[in-house]
Amino acid sequence: MFSWRAKDHNKRLTPKYSCVVSLTEYHRRIDALKSEDLRSLCKRLQITTKEEVNSKHCTSVKTELEPETFKPNLREPSDLLEADQIEKLARNLPPRTIGYPWTLAFGTSKHGMSIKSLYRAMQGQDTPVLMVIKDGDGQVFGALASEPFKISDGFYGTGETFLFTFNPEFEVYKWTGDNMFFIKGDMDSLAFGGGSGEFGLWLDGDLYHGRSHSCKTFGNPMLSKKEDFYVQDIEIWAFE
């Protein structure tokens, strides 16, 4: 079907083609774009799909980066992480952090057990930050925040954020997509993840008491041995 449209009465009429189909037919055609027939046609015509490009690119990048890139340069030694733990974490960091040295932006041994000092140390940072916690039981766990910690009225951050633990083995818990409760901070606490009234990881304003619980944001189990724990030490690393 086509219609006629005149831009100017003194100009030649130009046909404008359009196609009107039912909603059912529209969805049928959209579904056809995902069919195996189309995939076969793409192969015969040597057309590469976006998904294939992304898959090949990711594989290529990962291959090129291994293994040296995952041995990051720390500007100063970590008191909480062993060399192999650092490498395991590095393999799960956002791509935009790769190649940058790790800088200790905050440490309770240096800056004290104060959430106010923590927020102050975050000023001027513009990279993701890695929080590493060692509790009174000697367990090491923490979170990668997609942006520096700050005081907020609600949750902030992106799906780059994740939780991790080394207890009993190294595990990373990335965003499930169920909600967007990534990070929330005020002068009384700092929290990661949420859903059903429970935080995945929570610290009080003194950075001394903490709590870990399963949450929908990351689909994680309890990160520490006990739901409530005492903080022994905290390190926060930036990538710059």
What attributes characterize this protein structure?
240 residues, 23% helix, 26% strand
Can you characterise this structure?
- This protein is of the alpha+beta class and 240 residues long.
- 23% of the residues lie in helices and 26% in strands.
- The protein has six helices and twelve strands.
- The chain has helices at residues 23-32, 36-44, 50-65, 83-90, 108-111, 115-122, and strands spanning 2-5, 14-17, 102-107, 129-135, 140-145, 162-165, 171-174, 183-185, 189-192, 201-204, 209-212, 228-239.
- The strands form two sheets. Strands 3, 4, 5, 6, 7, 8, 9, 10, 11 and 12 form a ten-stranded antiparallel sheet that branches. Strands 1-2 form a two-stranded antiparallel ribbon.
- The longest helix has 16 residues, at 50-65.
- The radius of gyration is 25 Å and the shape is globular.
- The termini are far apart.
- Low-confidence region ranges: 1-19, 32-36, 41-63
- Series of secondary-structure elements, N-terminal to C-terminal: EEHHHHEHHEEEEEEEEE
Q: What gross morphology would you assign?
A: globular
Number of separate strands: 12
Quaternary organisation: single chain
Sheet with most strands: 10 strands, antiparallel
Helix content: 10-25%
Total count of helical runs of at least 4 residues: 6
Strand content: 25-35%
Tell me the span between the first and last alpha carbons.
59 Å
